[in-house]
């Protein structure tokens, strides 16, 4: 199996995630796009591990993917909690309205 | 066992299930009478007409429970490979069984600390 | 192209199409459900790549837990639906940046890995992964538990509000109604159970 397919799919998913982060206004949808980008990276790591270095003893690629999944779960939890706080204080989840730090 | 032997059966079951569903729905469509009427599309409810939108504010406490579930889901994922290897460990393997046991219980203990915190904070109880 | 590549192309197409629907869907719930489909598809990709354990983790953590968390996120926040409400004015810019990024990555990947091909796809077994976690990755493993603990405590503190703490719902002076609400001025009278946005955290303190 050629590594080209997984790598191109990962690049496509990452680009879709970038588009979502730029084009979406709803903070929850922005977080979803970030998840797409993280998953694209996971595909890359697993593809490199299993197609190019299948016999490596430390299983680095799959370990990275495993830890990224765990960290992403924590990130979503805190990110959504921040979005809820935003909604509670400002009654909006529109990221365009939250521009206090903009210059 | 090769990849196709492993997952071929799963694929066959999935395809067969989808086909079965399609055939049943097709037979249903062929055999049923079709008399469309706008009244049938209205919301069925006794008495008063429904008003407003379908959305209502959920209590945020559900979210803390959902996130606790996510945390312990991640924990369970790391317990799987540990459970597979911990019985086979001895002096000849790269790690000792005591080390694996201590490492895993440190992990579980740290997360139980989070559960204890949630308990202490009262997010687990409904008043 | 081997049969393995063909299986990958089928799974990858489903994943890619549902990923595009995640960022273009006009309904929040549809976007979340397409995200669940995309994550399942990525699990299928892991399976095709011979990483059965990661595929299991993907389904258990992402599809089973994180997608549900996103659904909770959508149900807890009220947002207007429709194309103009969900997308900002940056759609053209986003398309340009994402397109340029994809072309750049593809132009780097195709010459670098175009000639490579593995005859048989094999991944490490779950035993190899278990040994590797406790032999080589035990420090990241323990640090991950601390990270999850910190995330849990942070989420609890952010999500609930203590009784008598400052900054209660009285602070919410302006509640901007989205487009979806504009035509229903008497919503609060009509739907007694649906509280205004300011009471989101009120349940925590009472």
Could you explain how this protein is built, in words?
The complex is a heterotrimer of chains A (103), B (127) and C (206). Chain A is 75% helix and 0% strand. Chain A is built from three helices and no strands. The longest helix of chain A has 31 residues, at 60-90. The mean pLDDT of chain A is 90. Chain B is mainly alpha-helical and 127 residues long. Chain B folds into two domains: 3-33; 61-121. The longest helix of chain B is centred in the first third of the chain and has 29 residues, at 3-31. The termini of chain B are far apart. Chain C has helices at residues 3-24, 28-48, 52-76, 83-86, 91-113, 126-135, 138-159, 179-182, 187-190, 202-205. Chain C has ten helices and no strands. Among the domains of chain C are: 1-89, Up-down Bundle (Four Helix Bundle (Hemerythrin (Met), subunit A)), CATH 1.20.120; 125-163. The chains are: A mainly alpha (103), B mainly alpha (127), C mainly alpha (206).
In short:
Chain A is an all-alpha fold and 103 residues long.
Give the rounded overall mean pLDDT of chain B.
86
CATH class of the domain at 1-89 in chain C: Mainly Alpha
Low-pLDDT residue intervals, each spanning 5 or more residues of chain C: 163-206
Q: Using the alpha-carbon principal axes, give the shape of chain B.
A: flat
* Rg of chain B computed from alpha carbons, rounded to a whole number of angstroms: 27 Å
How is the biggest beta sheet of chain C arranged? none
Distance between the termini of chain B: 55 Å
Distance between the termini of chain C: 63 Å
Q: Mind telling me which CATH architecture of the domain at 1-89 in chain C this is?
A: Up-down Bundle
Number of continuous helical runs of chain C:
10
Structural class designation of chain B: mainly alpha
Oligomer: heterotrimer
Helix content of chain C: 55-70%
Element pattern of chain B in H and E: HHH
Q: Which chains make the largest contact?
A: A-C, 77 and 98 residues
| Principal-axes shape call of chain C | globular
Quick check: average pLDDT of chain C? Answer: 78
Q: What fraction of residues of chain B sit in β-strands?
A: under 5%
Order of helices and strands of chain C: HHHHHHHHHH
How many domains is the backbone of chain B divided into? 2
Helix content of chain B: 55-70%
